Amino acid sequence: MATQALAQEAAGPAPANIEMTSAAEGTVLNELSKEPLQGVKVDLFPVDATSGDPNWDAAAYSAVTDIAGRFRVENARPGKYEVACSKDGFIPGRVVPGAVSGPERVTLAPAETRGGLRYTLAPAAIVSGRVLDEDHKPLRNASVALPMPFGPENGKHGMILRLAAVKTNETGEYRLNSLWPGDYYLEATPPPAVVGAGATATKSVSDGPRRALVPTYYPNASDPAQATLIRVSAGQELVGQDIVLRKEKVVNVSGHVLANDGAPAKGVSLSLAPRYLVGSSYAIDADDQGAFTFQDLQPGDYLLLAIDKSRNDSPVTYIQLPVGDDDRGDVTLRMQMLEASGAFVLEGSDKKDMDYSGCHISAMPAASDLVGGTGAAAKRDGTFRLARLTAGSVTLTALCRAGGESYIQSIMVGGADVFGTEIDSADLVGNGIKVIVRNDAASASGALDISSEKRAALKSPVALLIPTDVRLRRTGVSVISAIDANNHYQHTGVRPGEYLAFAFEEANSSAFDDPHFYALVQSRGERVTLAPGESKTLSLKLLPWPPEFADRIHP
Prior knowledge:
Blueprint: E1 22-30, E2 41-46, E3 61-64, E4 70-76, E5 79-86, E6 90-91, E7 105-108, E8 113-123, E9 125-132, E10 143-145, E11 147-153, E12 156-161, E13 166-167, E14 173-179, E15 182-184, E16 187-189, E17 210-214, E18 216-217, E19 230-232, E20 237-238, E21 243-244, E22 246-258, E23 268-274, E24 282-285, E25 291-297, E26 300-308, E27 317-323, E28 328-334, E29 338-346, E30 359-365, E31 374-377, E32 383-389, E33 393-400, E34 407-413, E35 416-417, E36 422-424, H1 425-431, E37 433-438, E38 442-447, H2 452-457, E39 462-467, H3 470-473, E40 479-482, E41 488-494, E42 497-504, H4 515-521, E43 526-530, E44 535-537, E45 542-543
Parallel strand pairs: 1-8, 9-20, 9-21, 22-28, 29-37, 38-44, 42-45
Antiparallel strand pairs: 1-4, 2-3, 2-5, 5-7, 6-8, 9-14, 10-13, 10-16, 11-12, 15-19, 16-18, 17-22, 22-25, 23-24, 23-26, 26-27, 29-32, 30-31, 30-33, 33-36, 34-35, 34-37, 38-41, 39-40, 39-42, 42-43
């Protein structure tokens, strides 16, 4: 019989009585072939009792599957765990419907052996091809990436990068491995010697527009709106995805970076990201006089970001930068170091000695919720300090799990509630921040009528509450709960207010604050209003996840 690698490292100190330790055992299968998978690492990460979140930094109890796909994790402390399965060449799978404790978590009682756990892993996809210039000659050292459609941004589709870009070899060939299934744009960027990403920081502005190779989307589009999405499935190898780079009109943009005192800034790293393309940028360093030049840029709207490389705690300073049809040499960006302070305060309760150490506040740049930002954890007394604030407009959000069914009622700055709205970070410095917490949260529950045959085919059905207030949809107030094997769900810790309630066959929370998603599904939701401390029973019908957002769902 093949041997198994059992628990390798304990998560925290071992129980005093070794006879009270627990175990978990089961199998891992190939999701496509349903055959056992050998060599899968199965980790059990402890779930924090206060926050309800897995502690990914803790040492996990681990095991590795044998030739029959079996694993057994031993000597675990009793408690709740997040289960993670990993193997090179595969993407994370979900628990087979009907397994214990929902999609990804197990609870181990003292001296219990929890058996019958079944997991699946799907083979990753591969995309390969070549990058060619306008004469169809191969380009060495070009960058190739797969931005994923992410939702509308000022009338255009935004994107994120699912994985880091790869470089082409001597014959212009590239190979992108370990891909999740989904729809992607395929983007190729010319080598540094050709495009502005590798430009020296001090080259002067040229005499006017000219033509050069520019970032191009498969098969041959300079604008992603004109590109063709490619769809990859689990285990698929998509070959021959060649991109011919376009030559378009380009300009140079130059300027200076100033320190907070107005003097030339030294040691500054700059990046210029197209406004619609989050996660992709041209990067250069300013010289010792703070001067910089980005070469061969296409006209369009950009975000210019700067970071002080000499500081580990440097905030991101950014400005919105429109680039027209002519060269620019007048750009000025001033580095600023701002910080603000405030406190979490409990209202509507007589509770004394509230411990706020489970509370957290974040300030994200309003221009993009994926660029920069800072956050702070509250002390036990509720006070906090937000350091490294980004200059300009920011959006404040907060989370508090300070005992009971607590939630964020409002974030007050200068007498105004700015929870989920934009505010200039300079106003935070002068007025302070008061985060109002209440512990009279609402709850909602229900059961769905799902046939056993239908339920067996579902992987991760969920119930969902989305606020009708667009301001709150930006703050993470939406509530998502698993529908268990008995077709029941329960929402707890819900902020009182008006919601649309749904039950979906599967879902991805990244869509919840997307206005396009809300407009698409709002007519199908059940409107529900929850008062402080109220508990309601809902009657929902199971809906398919909108096909327009199918690219957000991954096995």
